[in-house]
Amino acid sequence: MLDCVSTGVSKHQGITNLNKLQEILDDDLKSKRLLLVLDDMWEDKDKSRWDKLLAPLRCSINGNVILVTTRNHSVVKMISTMDSIHLDGLKDDDFWLMFKSCAFGDQKYEGHPSLLVIGKRIANKLKGYPLAAKSVGALLRRDLDGGHWMSILQSDEWKLQQGPDDIIPALKLSFTHLPFRLQRCFSYCALFPKGHMFDGLDLVRIWISQGLISSGSKRMEETGYHYLNDLVDRGFFQKSTYYSMHDLIHDLAHIVSLEECHMMDNFDSGNGIDHAIIRHLSINTRSAYKWNPHACNFSPSDNFQRKLAYIGEKVQTKNLSTLMLFGKYDKEFSETFSKVFKEVRYLRVLRLPTLSYSIDSLICNFSKLIHLRYLELISSVPGTPLPEVICQLYHLQVLDVEYWVHLSTLPHGISNLVNLRHFVARGELHAKIAGVGRLKLLQELKEFRVGKTKDFQIEQLNGLRELGGSLAIYNLENVESREESMNAGLRDKIYIHDLLLSWCKKRFDVSSITEAQVLEGLHPHCGLKRLHITSYGGIYSPTWLSSNSPLTSLESIYLENCTKWELLPPFGQFPLLKTLHLVQLSASTEVPIMSRDDWAESEKHVLFPCLEELVIRDCPKLRSFASPQSSSSGNGFHFGCLRRVNIYNCPQLIHLPQFGEMKSLFTMSIEGVGAFPHIRLLVRALHIKGGASVRTLDEVLVLVLTDCRLSALEKLTISSFLDFACLPWEIFCQLLSLEMLVIMDCPRFFLPAYPYGQQGENIFSPLLKKLVIKACGITGKQLSDLLLQLPLLYFLTIRKCPKIASLAIGGLIAGNVSSTTSDNHDWTTDDLLQIPSDLLNRLQYLCIEDIPDLVLRGSESFLGFVSLKTLHITGCPEFFISIMTEKEKSSGSCPLLPPSLQDLLVTHMDNKLLTSMLSNLTSLSILSVSWSPELTSVALHPCSSLETLIVEKCSRLFVLDGTGSLCSIKHMRIFECPSLAINCGPSSSHGQDQDMSFLLHLEKLEIDNASFFNTAICKSLPSLQHVVFFMAKNVRYFTEEQDKALCHLTSLHTLDFCYCTDLLSLPKELHLLSSVKRLSIKACPGILSLPEKGLPASLQELYVSNCSTELKEQCRKTKNVRCVYVDRHAGKFISICKMLRLYFRNQKR
């Protein structure tokens, strides 16, 4: 539960104390509503455990729900706080529809009228339970014959039903009709716990080890998978990522396997079991340990220990064939286990997970288990080696040590296990098997590293003809000739699907001729699906990859770091190819597609019909794709299934491949490719970024946009095209799904005259909602024409557009209207941006930035924007002067902005202008005022809904008036406002105390002046949780008064010091801040150490970056802080980065 509700760094990592964990969960759930689902609950013996689970949930808010499903009425009685809901079977009509689907499958049941009659009678016996329908339906579907169906209906199994809810007889009926081979495999699965997720291959290995899989013409693994999938088809298993078994099916397995198989757990009564005939035993300890609050650990159940001892008395352990252990255990358990199973001799399957002690502490006669076929061992003690005695288990077929912690070596005699079929371990351990050639039956060898000694020469692979799956061969520089590489016998290994051939990247001597001969001798079989070649030093392709290659089944080709490879194979000859990666091919100049002869012989002229992923990176000499169509008619279909394209750092590439329609394209990234711009397509968002030497955008549009199905694009961004002049209306007209258009850093960009359609209909993208124009040469008139065509637009940003000099709101303005300013400038209609009247009702977001000469024209004001919620106008000083001028012309007293505003960001304010702007903004929640040196006061009386107040670079700002009306302020940032800082105190120089009551609900404070840290202010901040002290100038130390004032911040849990280059120390009394949980110090190079008195005892997370070496070293050694991050990005300082972006952007003005 903690993993689900925790955000950011998990507070509970490493904590084992239950009370502490409950406190953390309780804290994380505050102010959150909870839905907890507990499916198939069966624990009913210990109500105290249920109460402990609920303890941290009882104090949370109303509306929380816990939903429990169970099959035990005793559970309902124990936990119920409301009436239970009894789930009956499906209604007859619904169940009949499902049953027919299960019984007939895809067959037309209308042609079997007699079967419908019999099926109806069978369905009535299944009581409406879907699981029974699935199981019995699968049995009926295997033979659509009346006699077969009648035998099912008349089976004696139905007489064994013990009640209306008993469906086990129906399930057993399906089991009875299983072939004997499948019955044995299914019943063996009773040894696994309920809810166990089966790895298919692992289960098949166990079946093989027990002799349950018959050997024939196919490999036993293939036969085993056939058995497993047959059980899936018959409804006994469910398949997703893993295989699983329904609990009722598991109950059936338990019933039908009672004579041989038994699983012991804490809920097992053992009644009715003849322990003397048990041959397969598993022990599940997961329910045997309970939390001991006194010892703060899990203690074993005494009852479980007694059961284990009882098993030892009743079971003839020396005759056991299977012994599997699930769950953890302690030393006492291991001692009892060792005593109980000291006589085992004939085990074929042994599974011992989480070995905390030596294997002899569990199985004292381990060396005598000479009949062992399957061995799974997991050690939790790092560095523990495998016991040497394993090498004497000559019948062993499966050795599974995949989860043995930090296993780095193998016993030298591991190759003595001549019957070994599966070595389940990491690839690096596969590479350490000395003399692996003796393991003739081995099914998979993940890695083989060629060495000089005989036990690691490539000829070791020759006899391993059973190898399948993946094979990676490294250090091929140790192979000296074609004859030697042919000794690997790769052509005979018909079960291998994935092959990696690798030379050492850092080798000194590279012989292109020798390496070409070696690669020639590594000819794989024709059924290979994936080929990966790295660091090959040859110039040419091997003949088995060249024209008319026999590897027609290839689906993936990876060629990487082959720096001398000049002549690549023609990749178009592989019809099933899905993935093609060409990386760091320094000498390749051309990517061949297909020879012209092969192209001429091709009937359909189809290239790459299956290719889904194309990656070409770091190929500095690559110039072109050699397409056989370059001189032909151009007919043919290319890249029809392509989903991902990544072409990066190929500076000489002149022509991109002819991609065609690419209807399945998901992502495209082209960067550093010849004269092409940076192109990035993600799903339906396309970003094209130019540069100083890129091609014209028109060529790019033809190459990329058309092929990416313009009509499907939802977001289009065009940036940094210095010579980009015009985007044709024909392109716009195809953007039928476009919702956002961004054009920026295109100084020559303009829109051509709009070609109005018949009767003035809109021919532009009808769904466009967001428009961003930045640093472009578009004129006011061109943008006005565009706005007229956007009926859904609600988001508009205009920045650094010098050809827009005036703004008119609503209606048309005649070209001869005189200027409203005193500069007598001759305004032309091209300079004028007119906001259409119908846009006034829709626009919710308007941002105008960095147009210094922009003025307002006409009599209409911003009051017409009745839906406007966000208004950002910065870097436009003349604009506000013109607003005031127009106001004075009218009534002189009307408000300037619409009352709907919730977010206002402005610069270059004075007292009169800002007062007028705020006069009616009762819904305003965010106010940001910056770069206003003439501003001396801010009248906040109307802003009763204000939650965030940001004031920056207002050097003469003296006072915040009307703060008494601010009852919900939660976030405040004050930066470079020295006069305001001085006068926020108990004895301000203007003659009266500043009212601090508006700070009562403040949660976050960002400041650059330490004078805010005084007792009067800090006492007024009972809710403050987060303080950011940033970019403070001339602050070297905190005074004694400031240290003491900080102690009044009783709710503070996060404290950040950022970019304070003059600061030499942290507050001396920092350790007294008893509520602080997170402390970050970023870019404060003058701080050399933590405070002498230490850090707060409550501190849980400490972040330090870009600070002095001394401070970072001390922080690394800090104890009692659970998470310490030094020069890492775990915190990421998100809010600080946003603040700094705004600051540096303003600095440029």
Automatic annotation (TrEMBL):
Residues 191-253 form the Disease resistance protein winged helix domain. One of its GO terms (molecular function) is ADP binding. SUPFAM superfamilies: L domain-like, P-loop containing nucleoside triphosphate hydrolases, RNI-like. Keywords: Leucine-rich repeat, Plant defense, Repeat. The keyword Zinc does not apply. It comes from the Eukaryota. InterPro entries: Apaf_helical (IPR042197), LRR_dom_sf (IPR032675), LRR_R13L1-DRL21 (IPR056789), NB-ARC (IPR002182), P-loop_NTPase (IPR027417), WH-like_DNA-bd_sf (IPR036388), WHD_DRP (IPR058922). Residues 19-105 form the NB-ARC domain. This is NB-ARC domain-containing protein. It comes from Triticum turgidum subsp. durum (Durum wheat). The lineage of its organism: Eukaryota, Viridiplantae, Streptophyta, Embryophyta, Tracheophyta.
